[in-house]
Predict the 3D structure of the following.
Amino acid sequence: MPSFFPAALENLIDRFAALPGIGRKSAQRLAFYVLSLPEEEAAAFAEAVLEAKRDVHTCPVCQNLTDGDLCAVCASLSRDRTTICGVSEPRDVLSIERSREYRGLYHVLHGALSPMNHVGPDDLRIRELVDRVAQGDVAEVILATNPDTEGDATAMYVSRLLRPFGVKVTRLGFGVPVGSNLEYADDATLLRALEGRREM
Amino acid sequence: MPSFFPAALENLIDRFAALPGIGRKSAQRLAFYVLSLPEEEAAAFAEAVLEAKRDVHTCPVCQNLTDGDLCAVCASLSRDRTTICGVSEPRDVLSIERSREYRGLYHVLHGALSPMNHVGPDDLRIRELVDRVAQGDVAEVILATNPDTEGDATAMYVSRLLRPFGVKVTRLGFGVPVGSNLEYADDATLLRALEGRREM
């Protein structure tokens, strides 16, 4: 059977199929869609890829993604500079901000420790966090890594490194999600919720 | 709440989110993935979009996508030039080819009639099919549009246009899919399967 899609189309399908969570059929659909776009919109799509790659880099302080010298949070004068919230990924910053409660700074670790996937401490931005704490203005570091094995291990590892500096290190509270149903809560979550119970 | 992603990243997320079947969260994941790619791979992705758009056009005979003067099927000397299989989309050509049975030519209509979505006969490549049949070498046109309302309407419309040329017009057989279970076949399919029963 000869190849029925032109080489340039096959190549575009391959590129889409290499993206995470995109299967072969979806990649075909996306490629056909791009072909159906007006010339200037397809060009704008390509330009968006190049521009994001060119303009976006990590903030030298908190390691979050930014296109400026500092990210918006680090540059803001209204944030509490004595608290740092450590998260795994840039998108987690958005999640914490959505709570509209947190007014401190962030530190993006860019991953979580995972020996299985050969991700060690040197692959994360842990040293940068220790350096910030070592400068002395930080009172508390809230570790908001994911509540899974890798997130737990990362939080544990980082908290040990920070202990010598006498800084308070906390972790996000675990428990049953608000609005959920106890009947469907898994055992591990219920156990954590019991451990984390509060007086009323 | 200020925007927490740099403008170039927001723009890339928007571009991905505009693709069919890609929601906001998926678009974020794809954009972060592109940012994590090595410089040259991100550039190759952008180039793949531009190249596909530049190199791929429709075959002047069958309207399938190609990067040559004619598509591979129309250019082949081993295909039966008296039979044309009419399909809605370029990807449908691949489906028919997978059967390894069909040796005729194709005609890609690029859609199906859909008054609800303002798709009329002039939006499809129907005239091009009529022109091919009018040239006189065609003995049979197999209409392989989708077995849904729009595919039915398109097949009906095209068959009426082709009738004056005395060409044989057929439609793909309907029925229960091979390997499926009667218990789960829907009523419409069973009705069509009964109508299309064959002597053993």
Notes: Residues 39-55 of chain B form the longest helix (17 residues). The first strand of chain B starts at residue 57 and ends at 58. DSSP finds eight helices and six strands in chain B.
